[in-house]
Amino acid sequence: MTSVKLPDYPALAALPALREALAMPGGRAVLAAPPGSGKTTVVPLALLDEPWLTAKKIVMLEPRRVAARASAARMASLLGEKSGETVGYQVRFERKIGPATRIEVITEGLLTRRLQADPELPGVGLVIFDEFHERSLDADLALALTLDAAASLNEALRVLVMSATLDTERVSALLGGAPIVTASGRMFPVDVRFAPPRPGTSTDIAVADACAAALAERDGDVLAFLPGGREIRGAQRILESRLGTGVVVHPLYGDLSSAEQDLALAPNRDGRRKVILATNIAQTSLTVEGVTTVVDAGLARVARFDLGAGANALELQRISRASAEQRAGRAGRLGPGTAVRLWSRDQHGQLPAHDTPDILAVDLSRLALELAVWGVSDPTTLALMDQPPAASWSQAREVLAAIGAVGTDGRITAHGKALARLPATPRIAHMLMVAKAAGLAGTAAWTAAVLDERDSGADLAQAVRNAHSGKADAGALRRMRETVRQLLRLVDADERATIDADAIGRIVAMAYPERLARRRAETRGARDVGYLCADGGEARIPERDVLAASEWLAIAHWEPGNPRRIRAAAALSEREVLVDQAARIVNLADVAWNEQQRAVLAERQTRLGAIVLERKPMNQPDGERQRAAMIEGIRSLGIAALPWSEGARQWQARVASLRAWRGSEDWPDVSDEALAESLTEWLTPYLSGITRREHLARLDLAGILNGRLDYPQQQRLSRLAPTHVDVPSGSRVALEYLADAAPPVLAVKLQELFGATQTPTVNEGRMAVSLHLLSPGRRPIQVTRDLAGFWARTYEEVRKELKGRYPRHPWPDDPLAAAPTARAKPRGT
């Protein structure tokens, strides 16, 4: 190595500080170096001759296969070698590592596998985490396990974290205060242009237009970023139809073969110009020779965990500003370049600063399984940059318990250890192991491979048949066959195993038992058919779909939402459900409110989760459970379903008024909301024999509510907020209390108040009532809380207006001297 002259990249200037930081046993360092610094290529080579690495290896992690292979190839070429000699690599389905290999470039998940097999990492002197700013779940996990292993088992192990854009202070703290070393980059000027397409233009057309314009206006090759394979293929078709033979178009995304990815990155043998249509796998770690223009659609498909659906969903999202800078930098690696952003400058300012780390956004069941194998049930005990969200972590642990990966004590089981050895999610790994025991390993492996492709179509069984018989896209077929071969080898099954397409529903149910679903009775003319799932949710599928005729479905994928839309499922029979799910089927006495019948139903049920397989009426249900179910029924109907009489509502308003007027006293909250919240407390004792909506009419609600007050309170209620007031005529007139605790209303004929000068009051004289003075025809004349003022200022006008209309009623000149009366004429006149 000392005889090899390394390229004069800026990262070399950081070597003295790196060597010093890593010299001591257990040395740690953080290297912050921008794109173009050469950190990925020259740092591992430059450190290889350090004394502490004698007879030991460097393991360097890359976030993607294409970066791992390209990095290894570039380092090997600097040594005048091929990959697999001094520098090698290992990615999924591919390994080029020989006996003399000193630098192994691997994808992040492979380090976790190696640590789980032997935490001491024998023969490894340095682990380098490259492009750590991408914050994949595998990288976070691998770093946490590496630091834990180094602290307890291999104190001499060195750790170096490298990144172009990174919160270096946080990483340094995570590494125990490791030194932060910075290196400059070698970036040429990049002219960034904002060019939003016309509204309504699809992504593939917008990118194709921008690429064609770049080829016409500038020299060199074009690297375009699109969100996924579908958009890439669309843009490729458009460009190939427009461009002549002088330009070649290459796709670049994760599902392509290594040869196809290498072809996209290598200079064209015929010297033709290139357009490379890539996902974000080309965003970091790669220098693509010849590229002078970057076209960026500004979009990416990212996995986001939907807690309600219990699954990851791929969402189309705007990239972050940090990602946009990374992408633009691809144009300035070898000379001045141009970056064309297909969004506006204003939109750019609204982008998030950084991408969301996987640990905060994706399914954590695999992380939970790996930590359980490591012997950790509490992630806070490990050095993680971010702790997983509590709800997602709890759900992940529940999944492990449900599939038997952890026991009741939370510790990993033998079955869980077996699942961790498979490169699949815990559910799919469980499906493979259970299927193998049932003699269906081949079927399960092909099912897992098809599900990996994500676009299998709704009829999963047909998709598996097609794939097994070779009726699939060539690239997808290659990937699926590799997956099947690997899975069958790992579960020690015959790689020539046949498939039983009729068993695919059973197999899917092994992985997702809560997604077993039975067809609901549908109304005529419905466009969708609904299925009740074992987890209690509903899933729907178009009525025209062939699966819609199936009584039972095992659902593998669905679109989150309410209801959930079925994306991939397989039919199965009820007999298969009863046999395979026997351990999950329970018999229970169910006393519950039935929304459709608006009644409490008491049944003996045979159930698979929320799906009732069989029900029989129960003759003598438990009274306490029956009352509790009726309470839940009332909650669902709403508090207004109770038999509210005028007296009950007035009692409520009287208590509410005193609570507002006399806040220091202990009057209960009797609002509808409070009554609904405390239904169990105050209504349950009166529900014996009340089992249906119509039975509620039997309740004496006013008496029940009054029973909420003790006897002294009832007495005070009658005194402070009486229901009636005696007026001068001798009538006893009802008061109307208002829900908003305003003054109560006393509606009384004007003649009944002759001679009275004081407005009636309640609440020990503190609250004057609101007098609604009525005509002899009981029509409102005046509203006042000042009776004396009415007589003095308003009565005369009222008298003149109404005397002719009601001549048989008294209209004295002096109402204060007149006798009050409720009659047309006072007696004796």
Would you mind describing this structure in some detail?
34% of the residues lie in helices and 21% in strands. By secondary structure, the chain is an alpha/beta fold. The chain folds into five domains: 10-182, P-loop containing nucleotide triphosphate hydrolases (Rossmann fold, 3-Layer(aba) Sandwich); 190-360, P-loop containing nucleotide triphosphate hydrolases (Rossmann fold, 3-Layer(aba) Sandwich), CATH 3.40.50.300; 422-580, no CATH class; 639-719, no CATH class; 723-803, no CATH class. Helix 12 (365-374) crosses helix 13 (390-402). The mean pLDDT is 91.
How would you briefly describe this protein structure?
The protein has five domains: 10-182, Rossmann fold, CATH 3.40.50.300; 190-360, Rossmann fold, CATH 3.40.50; 422-580, no CATH class; 639-719, no CATH class; 723-803, no CATH class. 34% of the residues lie in helices and 21% in strands. It is built from 28 helices and 31 strands.
